[in-house]
Structure formats: structure tokens, C-alpha cells
């Protein structure tokens, strides 16, 4: 159950889901290990294609603030950016299929583990931990599904011939089950950092996801409780060693197992590398600069208007923090320059992979402590108004990016002068600035039902308007039907009890 730098042992048999397979502790462990690299985690963190990012990257296109330079081929990105998915249900069904099939496969593995582990003769502590991990992943997969599709079938038992054609379950009921699973995981899992726990799910991983779940339901009282649990954990924010190559943001880009990281997908050069992630840092012209990859593409590229979310003196918008515009290969002296309006994504840059090996090793961070700070600050403001404690945690995030020498107390004083709504919107804006390339912007739009209008002329100026009826940055107008993906036509044909989401074709 423990490992230091070793990867989780995943036997090919871990894909088997029949209850009869679970006879030994080793079998149970292998099946739970399977959940770490399949279903929702892989949809968020794995760069399997040179031309399109993980499935989770696609929703960011809906804002119009991001584009895929290969969207002529990867049309789901184009139709998402232009808000025309409704006219192209069949063409984007592969994306829906991929998310649906893989998440439900993982849920079935988790259901088998939860049902079977109590009947295996094994150490009770190990059994409790494996069961809690399975419950976490069942919840994590359902959370991803309900955010993507809305109402989805809620399956809590191993698949059999009697439940092949489930109906959709109201999202509120799905959320209730997600909460139940995550609370059980919080109670049973170790109170350690993810890295200190051998890269296995911990109490604080489950608590962080639970805070996110409550945020999506507008339950700020419970979000406050669980985000505070994470804040009080052994995790800590990464500090700036300097304001350039050793800034906190460059450390987060280049270094694994920082105490700030609550939950990550582990990558390694020899066992499981990060595939195409390093190539997403550049545009296609970078193929002439490096010899390690045959293709470079900006698959999740910010438009210039998005970059105006930052004031000019914010550290995060400086070159080689989150973004970059020029790079000279130290091995051959060749230089890459970003095309006009196409900043490169420095956060994805993996130096050794790009310069030497062609194999990315940087772990993908799902959740960082900075998010818990922002969750906590906002949830306090939502429930209690602008308090000293709320301002303290928001100031801790802002001071790390401050280049003017302001102290945390000085920043906090300014925050305390804000109205409740101004403070909440400042939290929203800070989330955009802190997680620009981690696929969180659309979730926040749906959670708040507000769209961030980033000024095209005044850096740092952001206003919020009602999401439905707003124009995205590509000039398309948001509709209710844009909030979810369609159920794939293949799935509708396989299961006659499913119904299609409003606005999308059912055949």
C-alpha cells in the first residue's frame, strides 16, 4: 500500500471488473490502482494527441478566450468556441463517447471494489483504505460526468445483465451520492500530503474535491468547512525564491511533489511519460527549433484579450512565468518566436523533454493549495461578508504575484475596503489569473452563471455579466444548451432509456 518514488502497480488484469475476480488483496489493490490512470483523471491530465489536448481542455474553448490552432481538424474545439455544438452533435459524439465510456468503466471498477473488498481476507486497515480510494474515484468520475452532461445514470452496483439500460438520474441525486462517497473517503484516508502518502489519495485530496463539489452547488457553508480542512493540512504555498526562473510559478511548472500540490497525475520517463504535453508550449514553427518532437501545436492557446486579465505589473503575465513569446534553444542557437496574437504556454514547457529526451516527466497538478485559499476566501465572503480572515487568504495569493513590493497587510487593507460583491468578483478574477492553463475557467462560469468580460484595452480590468445571453470572446452568444455536452448518438442507440440533452440531435 505504500511507495516512495515507485509507480502504482497496475496489472493488465486490473481492467477486469467481475466480482469473482476479487479473491486476494493483490487483486483488489491492482484494480484500485487502475482507477488512478483511467476515467476522469486521464480525461483531465493525459495529452494523448499532438493536435488536441485532454478532453477537459475543450470546455475552455467555450469562453472564446482559448483556441486550438488545429481546430480545422479537431472540430469539437471549433464548434465549442463558436457555440455551435448543437448543429454538430454527430461530429462531436466521439468526445462525448470518450468521456462517457471511460468514466463509466472506471465507475464499474470502483463499484466492484466497494462490493468485493469486504469479502476478502486481508488487513482491515488496508481494506478500509482501498475501499475509501475506490469511493473517492467513483465520486470523482461522477463529478466529472455531471459537470459534463448534467443528469446521468447513477450506478452503484457492479454491472450485470439487469442494469444494462439505466435511465438518467437527476443531477441533485448524483451530487448527494458524490458527497456521501467523498465524506467517507475524508474520514478513512490518511492525513498526509499526496507526495508523503506515496502518491495515493489522502484525506486532503478528498476534502479538496468535496469543497469543489459544494462550490458547484452553491453550498458555500460546506465549501468553507472543507477548504479550511485543506488549509489546515501539512500542505503549504510555494514561495518565490526569486521573481524569474525560480518563482513559485516556475517551480510549480518544473518541480514535482511540492507541498502546494494537493493532487497530481504522476508521470515518469520510463514507465508513463506525459506524451505530447511539452509540445503544447509552442506553436507549429517550433519543429524547426527542436529535434525531439515531430509536431508542436498550440492546442490550448490564449488569445491576447485573455492575457489582459492581468495588470501589467502582475508577475504571472511576465515572460516565462505562465506564458512566453520567444525561446532560444541553447543546444543549437535556433530561436522560436510566437506568431502575432499567439502567446506560447510556458506552464507546459518541460525542459529536458523538449531539449533532450522527447519524453515529458512533469506531473499534472489537478488541485493546488492556492485553490483552497481562494475557495475559502470566497466561501467566507459568500456566507459572512468581507472579513479579516477572508481578506487574509486572498491577500496571500495576490502578494505572491505582486511585483511592487506591497506587503500582505497592505494588500489586505485594500481588500477589506471592498464591498461583498466586489470581493467575491475579485476572488473569481484571481482564480482566472492563478489557473489560466489548468482548465478551470468554464467550470467557474457555470458555477457562478457569470461570464468574465476581460477588457481588450485596459490590462487587469474584468467585469462580470450574466452567462446566458452574454457574448463570448469569439462573438458567439451563450444559450442554456451550451452548459452541457450532448449525450453521444452511439450511447443513445445502445441504451433506449436515455434521453438527449435539450438542443442536441437524438439521432
List the helices and strands and how they pair.
Blueprint: H1 25-34, H2 40-45, E1 66-67, H3 75-81, H4 93-116, H5 124-149, H6 171-188, H7 203-216, H8 220-231, H9 248-254, E2 261-265, E3 301-302, H10 304-307, E4 326-328, E5 335-337, H11 351-357, E6 364-368, H12 369-384, H13 388-400, H14 408-416, H15 420-434, H16 441-448, E7 450-454, E8 462-466, H17 489-494
Helix pairs in contact: 1-4, 1-5, 4-5, 5-6, 6-7, 7-8, 8-12, 12-13, 12-15, 13-14, 13-15
Structure notes:
This protein is mainly alpha-helical and 507 residues long. It is 40% helix and 6% strand. It is built from 17 helices and eight strands. A two-stranded antiparallel sheet has the order 1-3. The chain has a two-stranded antiparallel ribbon with strand order 2-6. A two-stranded antiparallel sheet has the order 4-5. α6 (171-188) runs antiparallel to α7 (203-216), α12 (369-384) runs antiparallel to α13 (388-400) and α12 (369-384) packs antiparallel against α15. It is globular. It starts with 24 loop residues before the first helix and ends in a 13-residue tail after the last helix. This is Outer membrane starch-binding protein. Its main location: membrane. Belongs to the SusD family. InterPro entries: SusD-like_N, SusD_RagB_dom, TPR-like_helical_dom_sf. It comes from Prolixibacter denitrificans.
Number of extended strands? 8
Estimated structural class: mainly alpha
Question: What is the arithmetic mean of pLDDT?
Answer: 95
What is the 3D shape? globular
**Count of discrete alpha- or pi-helical segments spanning 4 or more residues:** 17
Oligomer: single chain
Strand content range: 5-15%
Helix/strand order? HHEHHHHHHHEEHEEHEHHHHHEEH
Indicate the radius of gyration in whole angstroms.
Answer: 22 Å
Largest sheet: 2 strands, antiparallel
The poorly predicted ranges are 1-6, 9-19
**Percent of residues in helices:** 25-40%
Strand order of the largest sheet: 1-3
Domain RagB/SusD: 327-504
Protein name: Outer membrane starch-binding protein
Family: Belongs to the SusD family.
Pfam family, one: SusD-like_3
Amino acid at each position: 500500500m505504500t511507495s516512495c518514488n515507485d509507480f502504482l502497480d497496475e496489472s493488465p488484469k486490473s481492467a477486469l471488473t467481475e466480482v469473482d475476480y476479487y479473491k486476494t488483496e493483490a487483486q483488489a489493490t491492482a484494480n484500485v490502482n487502475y482507477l488512478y490512470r483511467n476515467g476522469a483523471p486521464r480525461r483531465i491530465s493525459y495529452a494523448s494527441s499532438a493536435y488536441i489536448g485532454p478532453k477537459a481542455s475543450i470546455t475552455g474553448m467555450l469562453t472564446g478566450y482559448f483556441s486550438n490552432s488545429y481546430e480545422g481538424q479537431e472540430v469539437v474545439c471549433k464548434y465549442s468556441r463558436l457555440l455551435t455544438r448543437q448543429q454538430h452533435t454527430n461530429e462531436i459524439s466521439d468526445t462525448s463517447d470518450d468521456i462517457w465510456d471511460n468514466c463509466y468503466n472506471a465507475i464499474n471498477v470502483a463499484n466492484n471494489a466497494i462490493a468485493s473488498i469486504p469479502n476478502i481476507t486481508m488487513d482491515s486497515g488496508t481494506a478500509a483504505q482501498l475501499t475509501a480510494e475506490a469511493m473517492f474515484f467513483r465520486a470523482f468520475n461522477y463529478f466529472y460526468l455531471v459537470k459534463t452532461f448534467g443528469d446521468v445514470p447513477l450506478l452503484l452496483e457492479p454491472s450485470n445483465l439487469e442494469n444494462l439500460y439505466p435511465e438518467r438520474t437527476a443531477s441533485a441525486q448524483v451530487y448527494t451520492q458524490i458527497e456521501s462517497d467523498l465524506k467517507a473517503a475524508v474520514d478513512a484516508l490518511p492525513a498526509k500530503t499526496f507526495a508523503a502518502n506515496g502518491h495515493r489519495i489522502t484525506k486532503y485530496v478528498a476534502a479538496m474535491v468535496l469543497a469543489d463539489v459544494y462550490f458547484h452547488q452553491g453550498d458555500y457553508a460546506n465549501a468553507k468547512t472543507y477548504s479550511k480542512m485543506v488549509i489546515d493540512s501539512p500542505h503549504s504555498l510555494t514561495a518565490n525564491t526569486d521573481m524569474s526562473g525560480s518563482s513559485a510559478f516556475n517551480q510549480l511548472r518544473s518541480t514535482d511533489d511540492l507541498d502546494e500540490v494537493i493532487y497530481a497525475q504522476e508521470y515518469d520517463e520510463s514507465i508513463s511519460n506525459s506524451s505530447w504535453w511539452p509540445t503544447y508550449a509552442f506553436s507549429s514553427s517550433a519543429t524547426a527549433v527542436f529535434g525531439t518532437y515531430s509536431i508542436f501545436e498550440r492546442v490550448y492557446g490564449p488569445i491576447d484579450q485573455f492575457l489582459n486579465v492581468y495588470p501589467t505589473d502582475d508577475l504571472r503575465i511576465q515572460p516565462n512565468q505562465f506564458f512566453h513569446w520567444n525561446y532560444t534553444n541553447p543546444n543549437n542557437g535556433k530561436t522560436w518566436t510566437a506568431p502575432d496574437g499567439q502567446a506560447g504556454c510556458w506552464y507546459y514547457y518541460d525542459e529536458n523533454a523538449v531539449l533532450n529526451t522527447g519524453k515529458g516527466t512533469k506531473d499534472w497538478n489537478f488541485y493546488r493549495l492556492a485553490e483552497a485559499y481562494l475557495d475559502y476566501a470566497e466561501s467566507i465572503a459568500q456566507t459572512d461578508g468581507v472579513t479579516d480572515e477572508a481578506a487574509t487568504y486572498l491577500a496571500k495569493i495576490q502578494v505572491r504575484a505582486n511585483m511592487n513590493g506591497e506587503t500582505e497587510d497592505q494588500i489586505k487593507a485594500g481588500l477589506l475596503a471592498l464591498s461583498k460583491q466586489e470581493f467575491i468578483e475579485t476572488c473569481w478574477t484571481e482564480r482566472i489569473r492563478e489557473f489560466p492553463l489548468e482548465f478551470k475557467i468554464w467550470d467557474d462560469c457555470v458555477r457562478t452563471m457569470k461570464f468574465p468580460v476581460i477588457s481588450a484595452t485596459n490590462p487587469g480590468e474584468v467585469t462580470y455579466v450574466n452567462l446566458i445571453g452574454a457574448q463570448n470572446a469569439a462573438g458567439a452568444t451563450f444559450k442554456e444548451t451550451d452548459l452541457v455536452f450532448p449525450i453521444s448518438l452511439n450511447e443513445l442507440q445502445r441504451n433506449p432509456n436515455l434521453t438527449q440533452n435539450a438542443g442536441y440531435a437524438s439521432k
